[in-house]
């Protein structure tokens, strides 16, 4: 599924609007029934540097950041939800027909007794997601630096998951998501450049 | 030659319990070096860009696991 945030509009209460397209941002293919990989991937679902944390962090910070960079936070926050749906699809495909015995072998027995085959927002260690993972300090530079760090941490997490995975189809999707982290970090760095620019001074290209 | 992979050699003791990894590699992605994106950078064809995750050649920096590199002969 793809989500488009109408980020170019200034947020003014009723201008909050999304368009939902019933299509993934990038096709998700999975080669084998491999619940162990799902256990690793759930880190990007409900982990501290996962896609849920990213989306909620950015979409919340927008309200108290200079107008010039609100649209960027809307666009990236919205894209994170599209990534969340990709991760959800990966986890679902990796586990949907796994038997309780297979889930047990993969270390997902504790997950199974609590959630059956349902997805849940927790990290690879089973710790549930918490808002304590994210911050809105109200200071634009502090918030953007957190966002840059979050993108780099998510990029690193994708690297470690790729290292643990022997599924070429899955890795293809993970590489796409990792590349997006690089682009997001670049855009957040540019946002810092915009905010630190001195008035009445021409941009030098 | 410029690369987005850097290496260092951590200290290895003669009594290390695990086989020491002599060289450690880490990633320094292209966004660290660019600042504001300059205008008129080279682009991928649109269809390729959708697959790669970026329109801009400068920011494309894929990561392969050591396992995949053995198969494909890719280098990081």
SSE layout:
The complex is a heterodimer of chains A (205) and B (76).
Chain A: E1 2-5, E2 18-21, H1 35-41, H2 43-46, H3 51-61, H4 67-95, H5 100-105, H6 109-115, H7 140-164, H8 168-196
Antiparallel strand pairs in A: 1-2
Chain B: E1 5-8, E2 24-27, H1 31-34, H2 46-52, H3 66-72
Antiparallel strand pairs in B: 1-2
Question: Please, could you describe this protein's structure?
Answer:
The complex is a heterodimer of chains A (205) and B (76). Chain A is mainly α. Chain A has one domain (2-124, 133-196): Ferritin, core subunit, four-helix bundle (Ferritin, Up-down Bundle), CATH 1.20.1260. Chain A contains eight helices and two strands; from the N terminus they run E-E-H-H-H-H-H-H-H-H. Chain A has helices at 35-41, 43-46, 51-61, 67-95, 100-105, 109-115, 140-164, 168-196; strands at 2-5, 18-21. Chain A is elongated. The relative contact order of chain A is 0.17. The model of chain A has no long low-confidence stretch (mean pLDDT 92). Chain B has one domain (5-72). Chain B has 76 residues and is α+β, with helices and mostly antiparallel strands. The mean pLDDT of chain B is 91. In chain B, 24% of the residues lie in helices and 11% in strands. Chain B contains three helices and two strands; from the N terminus they run ββααα.
Q: Report the CATH C-level class of chain A.
A: Mainly Alpha
Total domain units of chain B: 1
User: What share of residues of chain A is helical?
Assistant: 55-70%
Helix count, DSSP H or I runs of 4 or more residues of chain B: 3
Name the largest protein-protein interface in this structure: A-B, 28 and 25 residues
Strand order of the largest sheet of chain B: 1-2
The end-to-end distance of chain A, rounded to whole angstroms, is: 37 Å
How large a portion of the residues of chain A is in β-strands, by DSSP E?
Answer: under 5%
Report mean pLDDT of chain A, rounded to a whole number.
92
Order of helices and strands of chain B: EEHHH
Q: Note the overall shape of chain A.
A: elongated
Q: How far apart are the termini of chain B?
A: 14 Å
Structural class of chain A: mainly alpha
Q: So, CATH architecture of chain A?
A: Up-down Bundle
**Could you tell me the mean pLDDT of chain B?**
91
User: Over all CA atoms, what is the radius of gyration of chain A?
Assistant: 18 Å
Q: Uncertain regions of chain B: pLDDT < 50 for 5+ in a row?
A: none
């Amino acid at each position: 599924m793809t989500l488009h945030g109408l980020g170019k509009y200034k947020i003014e209460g009723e201008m909050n609007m999304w368009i939902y397209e019933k299509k993934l941002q990038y096709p998700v293919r999975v080669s084998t029934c491999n619940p162990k990989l799902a256990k690793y991937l759930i880190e990007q679902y409900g982990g501290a540097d996962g896609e849920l944390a990213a989306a909620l962090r950015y979409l919340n910070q927008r309200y108290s950041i200079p107008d010039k960079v609100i649209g960027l936070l809307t666009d990236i926050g919205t894209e994170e939800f599209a990534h969340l749906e990709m991760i959800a699809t990966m986890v679902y495909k990796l586990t949907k027909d796994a038997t309780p015995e297979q889930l047990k072998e993969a270390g997902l027995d504790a997950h199974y007794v609590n959630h059956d085959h349902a997805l849940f927002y927790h990290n690879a260690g089973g710790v549930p997601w918490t808002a304590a993972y994210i911050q809105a300090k109200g200071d634009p530079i502090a918030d953007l630096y957190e966002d840059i760090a979050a993108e780099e941490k998510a990029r690193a997490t994708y690297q470690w998951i790729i290292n643990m995975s022997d599924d070429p189809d899955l890795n293809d999707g993970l590489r796409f998501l990792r590349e997006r982290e690089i682009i997001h970090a670049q855009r957040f760095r540019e946002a810092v450049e915009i905010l630190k620019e001195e008035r009445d001074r021409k941009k030098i290209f | 030659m410029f690369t987005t992979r850097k290496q260092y050699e951590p200290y290895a003791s003669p009594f290390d319990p695990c086989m020491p990894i002599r060289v450690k590699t880490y990633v320094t992605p292209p966004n660290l070096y660019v600042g504001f994106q300059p205008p008129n950078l080279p682009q991928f064809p649109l269809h390729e860009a959708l697959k790669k995750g970026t329109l801009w050649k400068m920011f494309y920096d894929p990561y392969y696991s050591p396992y995949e590199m053995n198969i494909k002969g890719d280098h990081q």
